[in-house]
C-alpha cells in the first residue's frame, strides 16, 4: 500500500513553549551594475501570482539527446533536450542511473560531478515518470533518491534545493525506528518511498539535472541584495529568499546568498561547487569563491505558510511567497519575524558577548564557542560537574523575551538537556531566578529546537542557564539562543505587532491559542483581556478577541490586509479575512523600584514612563534644599532617573521641658530620640517614680508629658510624745534619719536603748515606731550560787528553762 500526500509535513504536537525559532541574517543592499530591477516592498503583499512553474527562457544545457532503445518500457520524452549522457527527459529534467559506488556519499558525489544531484520528486506526474525509468532498468532494486531528513525529525528536504510538497510513502513509512534519514525508491512496492539508514545498499542511484540549476559560477561581483548566515544558509533558503525579492536568480556560496538578475561570469566545474550548506549539508552551497546558481522561477514553491517553509530550512527573516489555499493565488508574507523585541541576540552580537561555563568538557568539540543554535556539536561540561551552568554576558542591558535550546549535533553520541532553570543579573553579582526558579521545558531529542517565550520579559546583562542534570540524555550538552533587544533602542510606546496570518487549514492548530471574547470592539479591551489572562499577544479579527504567546507561525501580511474597522473604535482596524490585527500585551520594565531611606514609593510598577513618587515616612523629612523634581523617579529608556536622597529624621529642638529637682540626658534631638529625666537624690515624681522619658515626636516637638518638678516625699509624722523615749528630730521627709533614745531603766523590746528610723523616698519609714518600756529590778540568788540583779522591762519576753521549769534570767 502506498500513501500519497500533497505535503511532506510530519505530524507535530503543539505546545505553548515549543516552536522552531529563527535567526536573523545579515542583509546587504549593494549598488549594482545589473539591469535595473525594482525590489518588492518587504512589508506589502503582492497582488500578482507567484512565478509560474516553467521558466519561459530556461532549459537544461543541451547537446544531443542520448540514444535510447526501442523497448516499450522506455519513458517517452516530452521534447526536453538532455545533455550528453543524460536521458529520459521530461519538463526540463533529465536523468541518469549510477551503479556500484562504495556508499551513499559516493553516489551523491557522482551525481554532483555529472552536474546534477540525486533525484528529487515534486509531483505525482514526476513520480510516475520516475517509476517508468526504474522499471525500464530491469536490474534496479531499491534505488537511492535525493530526498533526505538531515535532522532525524521526519521532515524531508530535497537535495536540489526545491520545496517538497509531495510524498509517495510505502505503507508503514516513514519508519520512525533507528536513524533512517534517506529515502529509497522501493521496487517491491512500485518504487514507492521508504526511509532507510545511511549505511549499506542499495547499489544504484538515480541522478537528475533540471533546467532550474544553472551550474557553478564565480561568486557574483554585483547583486541586487545579499543575505548571510553562518549557520542557517541552505540552497532552498536562498531560492525562496530571492523569490520573495522578485529577483530571477539565486546564487549561494557557503553562508552567503546573492539575489542577482543574471548568471555571474566564469562558469566552473560542477565539482568546484560540491560544498554542503551550513544548515543542510545534503544541499549544495557552492565552494570557495564559487556559487551554485539557480533560476528561481523553475522552483515553484507550494508552501502553505511560513511554518511549512521553516520546517524545510527557510529560517531567515524576510518576505516570502506562500500559497495559503491550494490552487489559489500566492501571496507575499513576512516570515520568521517573531514580533517586537525578538532578535536572536547571540547570533547578532556574537562579536561582543562572552560565554562562560561552570566547567569544561574533556571533549574538545564541546566548547563554549559551539554553544550557538544550529551550530556544530554544542557546549558541554565536565562529567563530574554536579551543578553545571552556561552564562552569556552581553556588553549592555538587554530585554530578554525568550530562549531556545537544541541538543548537541552529534549523531554518534546523542545528548540533550530535558529541563533547565534561568537566572539573570544586571551586574553579574546579584542574581534573580526567572519565574521563581521553576524549570523550563527542554529537549526530547538531539536536534529539534524548543523555544520558551518569557511571559514576563526581564532586563539583564547576564543570563545563566542551569541544566537539570537528572533530565540530561547521556551528557548535559546543548546549543542555545537568547531572544530580545537592546533596552536602549526599544520603542516602548509601539504596541502594534502586525497583520498576522491565520491558517485556513482546519487540520492545523490556529496561530491564536484561545478565543477569549466574541464581542470585543476595541484593541484596548482585547489587550486588557489577554493581559489579564496571562498572554503575551492579543489579536482582533472583527469582534473576535483571541490571545496567544506566539504569533509567527504562519507569517504576517501587510497592514492593508487587516482592513476591517473595529466596531467600538472607528479609527482602528481589527483584522481581515483569516487575518488578525495583533498587539503585544507585555511591557518592558525597569529594574526593581529602588528603595529610598526612610521613604515610601507610590507604586511598585516598573513599566516604561511610570512615575514613582517618594514620600518621607512620619518623623522624617527631605534634606534641606531638596527640590520637588528630586522627590520622584521616572522609568526611562536607559533605566530609572536619579534616585532621591534618603529622608532625614525631623529635629526636635528648643522646646524640651524643664523639670525642677531633676537632671536630663538626651540620646539625640531627632525623631524617636529620647530625653530622660532623673530626680535628684531623695526626690521623686508624684507617682513615686524617679525617672520619666520624653520622646521626639514626628511633628518635631517633644511630647512634654513629664511633671514639672520632682518633689521630696514625706513619711508619716514622728509622734511627739512617746513614753520613756526622746526623739531628736521632727523631720519626716525622704532621706531624714530620726533618732530615738530610751530614758534610764527603759528599753526597746529588743533590749536596746537607742534606735534610728529613716524616711525612704517611697514615703515610708524603714521600720515601725516604738516607745521605750520602763524596767523592774530585783536582787535574786543565782542558780549556781551568789546573787544577781535582774531587771524586767515592759514588754520583755522571758525565756523558760524547760527542764527546771524556771525562767532564764539575765544579769542587769
From TrEMBL:
Sushi domain boundaries: 588-649, 708-774
Membrane topology: Peripheral membrane protein
Cellular component, GO annotation: endomembrane system; extracellular region; plasma membrane
Keywords: Cell adhesion, Disulfide bond, Membrane, Secreted, Signal, Sushi
Molecular functions per Gene Ontology: signaling receptor activity
Ranges of biased composition (kind: Low complexity): 1-72
Residue stretches making up the C-type lectin domain: 90-193
Region of interest called Disordered, as start-end residue ranges on this chain: 1-79
SUPFAM superfamilies: C-type lectin-like, Complement control module/SCR domain, Galactose-binding domain-like
Stretches assigned to the WSC domain: 210-297, 493-586
Places the protein is found: Endomembrane system; Secreted
GO terms, biological process: cell adhesion
InterPro entries recorded: C-type_lectin-like, C-type_lectin-like/link_sf, CTDL_fold, FA58C, Galactose-bd-like_sf, Neuropilin_MCO_CoagFactor, Sushi/SCR/CCP_sf, Sushi_SCR_CCP_dom
Domain of life of the native organism: Eukaryota
Domain annotation F5/8 type C: ranges: 341-485
PANTHER family the record matches: F5/8 TYPE C DOMAIN-CONTAINING PROTEIN, F5_8 TYPE C DOMAIN-CONTAINING PROTEIN
Protein's UniProt name: Uncharacterized protein LOC106167339
Naturally occurring in which organism (per UniProt): Lingula anatina
Record gene name: LOC106167339
Amino acid at each position: 500500500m502506498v500513501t500519497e500526500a500533497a505535503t511532506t509535513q510530519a505530524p507535530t504536537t503543539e505546545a505553548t513553549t515549543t516552536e522552531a525559532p529563527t535567526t536573523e541574517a545579515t542583509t546587504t543592499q549593494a549598488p549594482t551594475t545589473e539591469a535595473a530591477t525594482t525590489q518588492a516592498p518587504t512589508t506589502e503583499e503582492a497582488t500578482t501570482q507567484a512565478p509560474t512553474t516553467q521558466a519561459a527562457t530556461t532549459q537544461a544545457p543541451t547537446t544531443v539527446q542520448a540514444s535510447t532503445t526501442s523497448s516499450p518500457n522506455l519513458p517517452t520524452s516530452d521534447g526536453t533536450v538532455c545533455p550528453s549522457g543524460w536521458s529520459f527527459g521530461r519538463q526540463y529534467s533529465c536523468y541518469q542511473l549510477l551503479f556500484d559506488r562504495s556508499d551513499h556519499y559516493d553516489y551523491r558525489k557522482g551525481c554532483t560531478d555529472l552536474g546534477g544531484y540525486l533525484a528529487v520528486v515534486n509531483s505525482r506526474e514526476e513520480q510516475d515518470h520516475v517509476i517508468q525509468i526504474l522499471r525500464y532498468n530491469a536490474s534496479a532494486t531499491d534505488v537511492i533518491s535525493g530526498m533526505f531528513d538531515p535532522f532525524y525529525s521526519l521532515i524531508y528536504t530535497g537535495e536540489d534545493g526545491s520545496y517538497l510538497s509531495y510524498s509517495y510513502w510505502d505503507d508503514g513509512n516513514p519508519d520512525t525506528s533507528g536513524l533512517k534519514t534517506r529515502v529509497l525508491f522501493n521496487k517491491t512496492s512500485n518504487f514507492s518511498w521508504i526511509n532507510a539508514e545511511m549505511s549499506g545498499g542499495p547499489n544504484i542511484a538515480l541522478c537528475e539535472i533540471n533546467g532550474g540549476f544553472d551550474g557553478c559560477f564565480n561568486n557574483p561581483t554585483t547583486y541586487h541584495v545579499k543575505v548571510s548566515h553562518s549557520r542557517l544558509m541552505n540552497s532552498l533558503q536562498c531560492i525562496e529568499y530571492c523569490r520573495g525579492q522578485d529577483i530571477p536568480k539565486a546564487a549561494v556560496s557557503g553562508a552567503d546568498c546573492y539575489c542577482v538578475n543574471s548568471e555571474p561570469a566564469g562558469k566552473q566545474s560542477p565539482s568546484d561547487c560540491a560544498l554542503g550548506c551550513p544548515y543542510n549539508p545534503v544541499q549544495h552551497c557552492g565552494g570557495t569563491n564559487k556559487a551554485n546558481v539557480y533560476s528561481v522561477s523553475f522552483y515553484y514553491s507550494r508552501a502553505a505558510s511560513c511554518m511549512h517553509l521553516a520546517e524545510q530550512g527557510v529560517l531567515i527573516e524576510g518576505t516570502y511567497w506562500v500559497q495559503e489555499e491550494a490552487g489559489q493565488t500566492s501571496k507575499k508574507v513576512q516570515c520568521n519575524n517573531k514580533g517586537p523585541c525578538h532578535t536572536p541576540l547571540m547570533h547578532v552580537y556574537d562579536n561582543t558577548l562572552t560565554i562562560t561555563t561552570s566547567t569544561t568538557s574533556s571533549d574538545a568539540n564541546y566548547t563554549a564557542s559551539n554553544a550557538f543554535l544550529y551550530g556544530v556539536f554544542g557546549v558541554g561540561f565536565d562529567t563530574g560537574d554536579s551543578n553545571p551552568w552556561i552564562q552569556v554576558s552581553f556588553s549592555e542591558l538587554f530585554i530578554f523575551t525568550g530562549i531556545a535550546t537544541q541538543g548537541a549535533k552529534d549523531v554518534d553520541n546523542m545528548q540533550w538537556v530535558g529541563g533547565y532553570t534561568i537566572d539573570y543579573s544586571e551586574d553579574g553579582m546579584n542574581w534573580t531566578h526567572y519565574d521563581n526558579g521553576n524549570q523550563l521545558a527542554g529537549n526530547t531529542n538531539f536536534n529539534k529546537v524548543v523555544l520558551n517565550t518569557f511571559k514576563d520579559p526581564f532586563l539583564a546583562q547576564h543570563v545563566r542557564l542551569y541544566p537539570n542534570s537528572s533530565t540530561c540524555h547521556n551528557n548535559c550538552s546543548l546549543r542555545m539562543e537568547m531572544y530580545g533587544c537592546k533596552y536602549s533602542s526599544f520603542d516602548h510606546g509601539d504596541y502594534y505587532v502586525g497583520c498576522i496570518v491565520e491558517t485556513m487549514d482546519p487540520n492545523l492548530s490556529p496561530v491564536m491559542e484561545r478565543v477569549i471574547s466574541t464581542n470585543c470592539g476595541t484593541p484596548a479591551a482585547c489587550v486588557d483581556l489577554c493581559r489579564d489572562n496571562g498572554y503575551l499577544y492579543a489579536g482582533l479579527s472583527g469582534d473576535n478577541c483571541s490571545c496567544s504567546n506566539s504569533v509567527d507561525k504562519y507569517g504576517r501580511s501587510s497592514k492593508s490586509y487587516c482592513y476591517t474597522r473595529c466596531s467600538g473604535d472607528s479609527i482602528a482596524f481589527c483584522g481581515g479575512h483569516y487575518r488578525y490585527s495583533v498587539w503585544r500585551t507585555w511591557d518592558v520594565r525597569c529594574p526593581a523600584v529602588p528603595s529610598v531611606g526612610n521613604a515610601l514609593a507610590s507604586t511598585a510598577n516598573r513599566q516604561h514612563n511610570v512615575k514613582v513618587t517618594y514620600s518621607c515616612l512620619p518623623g522624617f523629612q527631605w534634606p534641606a534644599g531638596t527640590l520637588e523634581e528630586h522627590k520622584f523617579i521616572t522609568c526611562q529608556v536607559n533605566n530609572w532617573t536619579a534616585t532621591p536622597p534618603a529622608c532625614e529624621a525631623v529635629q526636635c529642638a528648643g522646646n524640651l521641658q524643664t523639670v525642677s529637682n531633676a537632671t536630663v540626658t538626651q540620646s539625640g534631638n531627632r525623631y524617636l530620640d529620647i530625653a530622660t529625666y532623673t530626680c535628684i537624690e531623695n526626690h521623686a515624681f508624684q507617682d513615686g517614680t524617679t525617672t520619666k522619658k520624653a520622646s521626639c515626636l514626628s511633628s518635631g516637638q517633644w511630647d512634654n508629658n513629664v511633671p514639672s518638678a520632682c518633689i521630696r516625699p514625706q513619711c508619716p509624722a514622728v509622734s511627739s510624745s512617746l513614753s520613756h523615749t526622746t526623739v531628736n528630730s521632727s523631720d519626716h521627709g525622704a532621706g531624714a534619719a530620726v533618732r530615738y533614745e530610751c530614758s534610764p531603766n527603759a528599753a526597746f523590746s529588743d533590749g536596746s536603748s537607742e534606735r534610728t528610723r529613716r524616711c525612704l523616698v517611697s514615703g515610708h519609714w524603714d521600720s515601725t515606731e516604738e516607745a521605750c518600756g520602763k524596767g523592774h529590778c530585783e536582787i535574786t540568788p543565782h542558780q549556781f550560787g551568789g546573787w544577781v540583779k535582774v531587771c524586767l522591762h515592759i514588754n520583755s519576753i522571758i525565756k523558760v528553762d524547760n527542764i527546771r521549769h524556771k525562767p532564764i534570767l539575765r544579769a542587769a
